[in-house]
Specification:
The protein has 252 residues and is mostly helical. It has 2 domains: 38-141, Serine Threonine Protein Phosphatase 5, Tetratricopeptide repeat (Alpha Horseshoe), CATH 1.25.40; 160-252, Tetratricopeptide repeat domain (Serine Threonine Protein Phosphatase 5, Tetratricopeptide repeat, Alpha Horseshoe), CATH 1.25.40. 81% of the residues lie in helices and 0% in strands. The longest helix has 54 residues, at 2-55. It is elongated and about 65 Å long. The N and C termini lie far apart (109 Å).
């Protein structure tokens, strides 16, 4: 009798474990399918925003953006949403806030993301875009030094080699606009270190340094750099620009 009871107990325990496993499996599968729906929903609403922006109707743009923001907030606060889906929703929310000119609000969302995952590259990318917009705004208001400090701060963010190089190029170009060619050269020289094996960024760096030398009146230095791109980096996407610059330089 005791043996039968023991066997029955084992069977019941097994059934409970199996049931729990099935519930867990269904829950995880539900989360996956739900997250796919979340992704589709966000993509669909983002497309609606883009179409509204192209249409140029201010009221329609605001309506579509509000709907997208509300949806992103709902997904981010949903207990059944995966961490990945929450991050995506918050990143999109930050992007929308930035487009609306709410730089502080966008940064708050990014900081929330980065508190949970400090090394999340996608969130760092969004933050860098928002900060770049903030820097542009500061410079347009005449607060150039503050704007440049923001740009330089972005360069301290280790995102990806491609974005790191791009962010340094932004600082270099901004110094070119200010006609501070020595500082521009300094920043363009930093670019190849981010992408040692990327010939396009190397050629880009040399091209813009050459342009800075040309603007400084140091045409021999500029010519050396243009020729170096043509001779040493003929496969780069900037070789035609180097050829054009060299032809113009020699025709003077």
């Amino acid at each position: 009798m005791k043996l039968k009871e023991a066997k029955a107990g084992v069977v019941v325990t097994t059934l409970i474990v199996v049931s729990l496993m099935l519930v867990s499996f269904k829950y995880e599968e539900g989360k996956k399918s739900g997250n796919l729906l979340f992704d589709e929903k966000i993509c669909s609403l983002k497309l609606n925003v883009i179409l509204a922006e192209k249409g140029g109707n201010r009221e329609e743009i605001e309506e579509e953006r509000e709907l997208l923001k509300d949806t992103c907030k709902g997904i981010a606060n949903n207990i059944f949403t995966s961490g990945h889906a929450k991050k995506k929703a918050l990143r999109v929310l930050a992007e929308v806030k930035m487009k609306e000119g709410d730089i502080e609000g966008a940064l708050e969302v990014c900081e929330k993301l980065l508190r949970e995952a400090p090394e999340d590259k996608a969130s760092l990318r969004v933050k860098s875009i928002i900060l770049r917009e903030g820097a542009k705004e500061l410079i347009s208001e005449g607060r150039r030094e503050e704007g440049m400090e923001v740009y330089k701060g972005i360069c301290d963010m280790d995102i990806t080699p491609e974005l790191n190089a791009f962010n340094k190029s932004v600082v270099g170009i901004e110094y070119m606009k200010q006609r501070d060619y020595d500082k521009a050269i300094e920043w363009f020289q930093k670019i190849p270190y981010e992408n040692e094996h990327n010939i396009n960024w190397k050629a880009y760096s040399m091209l813009f340094i050459g342009m800075c030398y040309e603007l400084k009146g140091e045409e021999e230095e500029a010519e050396k750099l243009y020729r170096a791109i043509i001779e040493k980096l003929p496969e780069s996407q900037w070789v035609e620009n180097a050829k054009e610059n060299l032809i113009k330089l020699k025709s003077r």
